[in-house]
Amino acid sequence: MRLVLRTTLWRTVLLAAFVAPLTLAMPSMAQQGPGPDCARPLSLALHDHGLLYSADTSSGIDKEITDELIRRSGCRIHVQLLPRARIWQLIESGALDFSLSGISTRERDKFAAFAWYFSNKYYLLVRRDAQVAKLDDFERNKALQLGVIRGFRYSDSANRLVDGLAGQQRLTQSSSGLNALFSALMAGQLHGMIIEPFDYPTLDSARIREQTSIIEFGDKAVPHGLIMSRASLSDEQRVAWAGLIAAMRRDGTMLRIFEKFFKPDLARAMVLAE
Amino acid sequence: MKHLLGPQARWLRWRGLPLLVLLLTFGLSVAYWERERSQELAAQRLALDTALRDTSQRVEQRVAAHEHLLQGVQGFLTAMPEADSAALRRYVDTLPLGADFAGLQGIALAERRGYAAPLLQIEPALPRNNAALGLDLLTQPAARRALEQAQDSGRLALSPKLDLQQLQLGQGPGFLMVMPIYRSGLPHATVTERRANLRAWVMAPVAAPTLMASLYGERPPGLALQLYDDQQLLEPALLHSSGDRPAAPLGQVREYLVQGGHTWTLVLEAGPGFAARQGLAGTGSVLWAGALLGLLLALLAWLLGTARARAQGLAEQMTQALRESEQRWSFALEGAGDGVWDWRPRERTMSSSARWKTIMGLRPGRPEPLVEELQALVHPEDLPRATAELQRCLDGLVPSLVSEFRVASGHDGHPGWNWVLCRGTVVERDAQHKPLRMIGTLSDINARRLSEERVRFMALHDPLTELANRAHFDERMHFALANARRYNESLGLILLDLDRFKPINDQFGHAVGDQLLQTVAKRIKSSVRETDTVGRIGGDEFVVLLTGPVTRETAQLVADKIFNQVALTMELSGARIEITCSLGLALYPEDGADELSLTKAADDAMYRNKRDGRKLMGGSPQTRDGYKDGQ
């Protein structure tokens, strides 16, 4: 499962993604406190997204973290696979307690709390025949279509690009997973898509590398974390669950999980130190 | 500078400003149209995106409902590994398979038997479903793919598009929803464990058209929906299509629906009906309205910008027309010999033509005269009348001035008076009806007046001698008698007849005779007072009326003086001629009380003298005595 990057270009790009400063102010909920309340069955949804979770193999980083949370909390957690957009709807309504590897936005902060455990940057993957050397080129060429996963948000520059293209009807969405977008990109139905390190296994294909290039957004690395519904979990419970995540970071569990899927230096760059 | 800027300013007013307004309005209209169109397109895109999101979520929810159904069967068989076909039938019979699960053709169970996966049971046990029992699904590539994916993932897997009728699993195009059932108590955390411990698959053949027809909510009018299996939008991959596909879609959106590890592509196309339904088909009129508004504003700008110039042009045109009219009028009047004048009484200013000055006896090139100067030019006898006539016109008592008077004509060194006819009318008055402007003409009528006076003179006088003729003399005598009666005064009447005039006329000719008569007339005239009247009442007969205080003595003196003057030798055409006359004198009231009696008395006296004293002609006392006898 580890990536083996064959070209110097790709190694440079991928390493650069994780060398960014990772000084993040962690929420106070990460402090030690009472454990999670397991009085009721809890619900957690995974979404199909590269190394985070693969529906084809029912494995991935999020699956590992889920299993570890279940183990540490001792709670009964019903895990299901859902589209990312559906997950956010359910988190907001309180019908779903948890999800993983989410990033915050001003809107999401109103209904969800986060317990960070890693960060990464976003990149624009474009077809070489689209003649795109920088972000502006993609925005200017109105013939170019960008593929995104419904419900996904990214770093600031990436969000600006997505929002701008949405107004021009230049987005093609996928309900879940990047595979459909990769296929469309290779078929020429799309000209670009936004990727994260979890998508590297897919990139580890000579055909894709021959036909695509990567453009940096230039934003800081964006923290990802456990998503907790404010509607279904009390403040104390959210602190307790955040405590579990902090403990996993602290005792090295989180790093070990990431090292299963990434090379050690990349894993260390991604996982947030406690 | 003004000369240079003039044409530019004119061009700016006449063309530049309207053009600028037109372009500006068009520009704003286009900008507004672009903005409205952009907003309309954005709203249309938003509506289309919203419809896409709603539709995809409804499809996901419907597939999720079917998935939950399969999860129930999966849980039942996992929890009860000993359950037989009857137990499964009873379980399925308890499921609320109704409209909420439209498209579901049944619940089927296929068992893993080495490299085969025969269908063991299909519920409900309909004849249609029973025909497929025993079918090895692994021999069907599409079904096999779903079975293997479900086995490896442990989750729901969807097959590619299938012909359900061909597999005898239902009708129409559809797909299989497959979930794995692993052996109880054995691990299936990894792919290897799942492959090793798979026991069976529970699956549901689903008819795609029925599934799509049962979606919650309404499809917005004007939208065409297509659901393709996979990401290639090819006709063989079409699972479902609804709505009329527009020939030229206003917009098309697509979304990849990842269901059970399989990707569908949902496509929505918006036709004109969709835009109209969203109230998004109204920007076209903006351009037309903008164009019309631009033209109207440009016209208004042209009208405003050129109003002054056009007014000036019109005024110049009118002024020019007036000037030409005045010139024509003036020329016509000047051509007729009349002078033209324009007088403003309040300003005491006057303007006049050269002809007017000439008629008025003024030098043509001199400045306009003052009113006082003009008054000095008018004959003193005519001035009061002329002034009164002018005042009547100024006061509005008469519509126009018509006045004849004499003006001095001595500018050329020959003093005299000329008759002129002044016509005029007041053309402008103030609110109090005071005259502000008066215009008129001046005609030289001197020749006419002289001619009229000559005619009148000739009617009353003898043309040869210019003495009063009989009619005029009778009138004067009638008047003098009436006057004498009224004031008890006396009159004297002298009749005179030339002696032997006919022989002279015959001897020297009528021309000499006429000269003789003219000489005699002058001598008689020179012998009487200015107030006396001398007339010629026959070929060689003359008459003298003596008015004023007259006595027989004074009258006799006049008669003697006439006799002596006539008797003087006269040189006529080289001939020395002497002639005498016979006179008869009568006095009023002594010799007659009226014209007839008075004349008869004078006539009688003259004939007595002629009969008695012709031989005494030459001024002898006898003659005078004889003359006296005639009394």
Pick out its properties.
A: alpha/beta; D-Maltodextrin-Binding Protein, domain 2; 2 domains; 5-stranded mixed sheet; disordered N terminus; B: 631 residues; alpha+beta; Beta-Lactamase; Alpha-Beta Plaits; 6-stranded antiparallel sheet; 5-stranded antiparallel sheet; 18 helices; disordered C terminus
Rg of chain A, alpha carbons: 18 Å
Number of separate structural domains of chain B: 3
Strand content of chain A: 15-25%
- In CATH, what is the homologous superfamily of the largest domain in chain B? CHASE domain
**CATH topology category name of the largest domain in chain A:** D-Maltodextrin-Binding Protein, domain 2
Distance linking N and C termini of chain B = 105 Å
Shape of chain B: rod-shaped
Corresponding CATH architecture of the largest domain in chain A = 3-Layer(aba) Sandwich
Within CATH, the superfamily of the largest domain in chain A carries the name Periplasmic binding protein-like II
**Name of the level-1 CATH class of the largest domain in chain B:** Alpha Beta
Mean pLDDT across every amino acid position of chain A: 85
Domains of chain A (count): 2
Reading the helices and strands of chain A in chain order gives HEHEHEHEEHEHEHEHHEEHHH
Unreliable residue runs of chain B: 614-631
Q: Nearest-angstrom radius of gyration of chain B?
A: 71 Å
* CATH C-level of the largest domain in chain A: Alpha Beta
- Under CATH, the topology of the largest domain in chain B can be stated as Beta-Lactamase
How is the topology of this model organized?
The complex is a heterodimer of chains A (274) and B (631).
Chain A lengths: L7 H11 L23 E5 L14 H13 L3 E5 L2 H10 L4 E5 L5 H4 E9 L2 E5 L7 H6 L5 E4 L6 H12 L3 E4 L4 H8 L5 E4 L4 H4 L2 H6 E5 L5 E8 L5 H16 L2 H9 L2 H7 L4
Parallel strand pairs in A: 1-2, 1-3, 6-7, 6-8
Antiparallel strand pairs in A: 3-10, 4-10, 5-8, 5-9
Chain B lengths: L1 H78 L5 H10 L12 E5 L7 E5 L3 H4 L10 H13 L3 E2 L3 E2 L9 E10 L8 H7 E10 H6 L9 E7 L8 E5 L8 E9 L2 E9 L1 H6 L6 H52 L3 E6 L4 E4 L1 H6 L11 H7 L5 H12 L6 E8 L8 E13 L5 E10 L1 H15 L9 H18 L3 E8 L2 H8 L1 H18 L5 E4 L4 E6 L5 H16 L2 E3 L2 E3 L3 E8 L6 H19 L7 H9 L2
Antiparallel strand pairs in B: 1-2, 1-6, 3-5, 4-5, 5-6, 7-8, 7-10, 9-10, 11-12, 11-15, 13-14, 14-15, 16-18, 16-21, 17-18, 19-20
Helix pairs in contact in B: 1-8, 14-15, 15-16, 17-18
